[in-house]
């Protein structure tokens, strides 16, 4: 009987295990059960004899897979586990595999094989099905490899599945490498990301992928490994997000601090890292860990609202505006992520460039042109402001500030957010000024006093 692991399956847990099989065994087809058994023995030996606290139910007391009675007798535990597996392999139920759809010669699998999301009602996981379920031999086997192809993150285990096979291979390679090196080091064998914030973990993975020039859509899963009140979180990352990072953050924190001039995006990420984090209940200060120890890579361990918004697919235009980001960075973001039309960006930039006609000194320019735009609270007000500027502009120039077409098609096209246009225009205007944050605050202070 041939066992074939070469084809994708529908269940994420089985799929991540299938990819684990391929990487752990370095092959995707097995002539017969005996050939496969050698690898299972190898895997189960590790599960039983090595520590695995990060997934503490795996082959441990709480798992239905082993017997409580074998707690102090690991040889007995190993024997039980192998017997259980071989029993599964020898079953022959008729029907269709719940995971890949294969017909007949199925095993009757208890969903409590090990408690990965077993209590959750997400219909895409086998845990949704009550009681036992039928699975083919390859899918059952895959399940046993899933724990080693995941990484500990926060309260759960995280894994990633992409539409790009190379990304999947990269992910599995890293995990199996970590798994093997943990065995040598005699530490907890299951891969640990050492990051306790899911969004940061995803961001960190994206940085690695873009460095390898690997691009594709990737779904990240975070699942719990307890059998009560279990949770499943999903975040879908689009290829364009990875490409964006590739364009703006080619070098991530390793051995130096980013500066706004040289590395604007990384500087922003760095700036938004919160100033402390908790590690096993203790507060760790950013200053001590990152700056004093020159451990810049650890920046990723701190909660970061910018990373959070970016990973969750929310707009980060507000962050860019607030930080007076360069037009270059803004443009890449709007084009790559927001898929904004180039013409629209060009027209808004042209308006900002034209407005320079009024710029004799930064402070006056800010008060007369920029501030009124900043203060607009509605589309009507924004439009009104632009008209006033248009009128002033015509008193100094032969050409208009913008044409009717510009206005209708690009500046405030029907159905698009006026607020976004306002933010983009402001970013383009900020770039023209050399005012510091304090200068602007002082100028605004004056406003309030009037
Ligand atoms: Zn199957």
Could you characterize the architecture of this molecule?
The chain is an alpha+beta fold and 450 residues long. It is 48% helix and 11% strand. The strands form four sheets. A five-stranded mixed beta sheet has the order 7-5-6-8-9. The protein has a two-stranded antiparallel sheet with strand order 1-2. β10 (276-279) and β11 (282-285) form a beta hairpin. The longest helix is centred in the middle third of the chain and has 21 residues, at 165-185. Bound molecules: zinc ion. Zinc ion binds at residues 9, 97, 99-100, 102, 135-136, 138-139.
List key phrases describing it.
alpha+beta, binds zinc ion, 18 helices, 5-stranded mixed sheet, two-stranded antiparallel sheet, 450 residues
Question: SSE layout and pairings?
Answer:
Blueprint: E1 3-4, H1 12-25, E2 29-30, H2 33-49, H3 74-90, E3 106-110, E4 132-136, H4 137-145, E5 151-153, E6 156-162, H5 165-185, E7 192-195, H6 198-211, E8 218-223, E9 232-237, H7 239-248, H8 264-272, E10 276-279, E11 282-285, H9 286-292, H10 305-311, H11 317-322, H12 327-336, H13 342-354, H14 362-375, H15 379-394, H16 404-411, H17 418-430, H18 437-449
Helix pairs in contact: 1-4, 1-5, 2-3, 6-7, 7-12, 13-16, 13-17, 14-18
């Amino acid at each position: 009987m041939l066992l074939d692991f070469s084809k994708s399956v529908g269940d994420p847990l089985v799929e991540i295990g299938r990819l684990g099989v391929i990487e752990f065994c370095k092959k995707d087809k097995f002539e017969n059960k005996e050939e496969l058994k050698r690898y299972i023995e190898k895997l189960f030996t590790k599960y039983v004899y090595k520590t695995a606290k990060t997934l503490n139910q795996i082959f441990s007391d709480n798992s239905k897979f082993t017997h409580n009675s074998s707690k102090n007798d690991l040889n007995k535990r190993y024997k039980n586990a192998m017997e259980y597996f071989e029993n599964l392999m020898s079953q022959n139920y008729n029907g269709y595999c719940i995971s890949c759809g294969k017909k007949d010669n199925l095993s009757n699998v208890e969903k409590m094989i090990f408690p990965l999301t077993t209590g959750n009602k997400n219909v895409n996981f086998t845990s949704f099905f009550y009681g036992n379920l039928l699975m083919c031999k390859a899918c059952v086997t895959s399940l046993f490899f899933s724990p080693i192809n995941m990484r500990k993150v926060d309260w759960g285990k995280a894994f990633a599945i992409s539409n790009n096979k190379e990304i999947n291979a990269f992910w599995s390679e890293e995990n199996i490498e970590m798994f093997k090196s943990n065995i040598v080091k005699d530490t907890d064998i299951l891969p640990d990301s050492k990051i306790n914030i899911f969004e940061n973990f995803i961001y960190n993975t994206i940085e690695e992928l873009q460095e390898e020039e690997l691009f594709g859509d990737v779904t990240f899963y975070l699942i719990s490994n307890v059998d009560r009140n279990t949770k499943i979180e999903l975040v879908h990352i689009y290829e364009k997000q990875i490409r964006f990072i590739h364009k703006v953050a080619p070098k991530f924190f390793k051995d130096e601090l980013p500066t706004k001039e040289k590395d604007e995006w990384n500087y922003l990420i760095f700036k938004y890292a919160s100033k402390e984090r908790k590690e096993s209940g203790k507060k760790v200060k950013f200053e001590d860990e990152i700056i004093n120890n020159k451990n810049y890579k650890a920046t990723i361990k701190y909660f970061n609202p910018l990373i959070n918004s970016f990973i969750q697919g929310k707009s980060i235009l507000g962050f860019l505006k607030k930080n007076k980001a360069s037009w270059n960075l803004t443009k890449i973001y709007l084009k790559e992520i927001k898929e904004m039309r180039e013409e629209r960006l060009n027209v808004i930039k042209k308006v900002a460039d034209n407005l320079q006609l009024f710029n004799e000194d930064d402070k006056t320019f800010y008060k007369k042109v920029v501030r009124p735009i900043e203060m607009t609270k509605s589309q009507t007000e924004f439009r009104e402001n632009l008209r006033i500027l248009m009128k002033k502009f015509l008193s100094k120039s032969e050409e208009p500030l913008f044409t009717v077409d510009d206005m209708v098609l690009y500046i405030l096209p029907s159905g698009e957010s006026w607020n976004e246009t306002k933010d983009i225009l402001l970013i383009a205007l900020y770039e023209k000024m050399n005012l510091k944050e304090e200068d602007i605050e002082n100028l605004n202070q004056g406003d309030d006093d009037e």
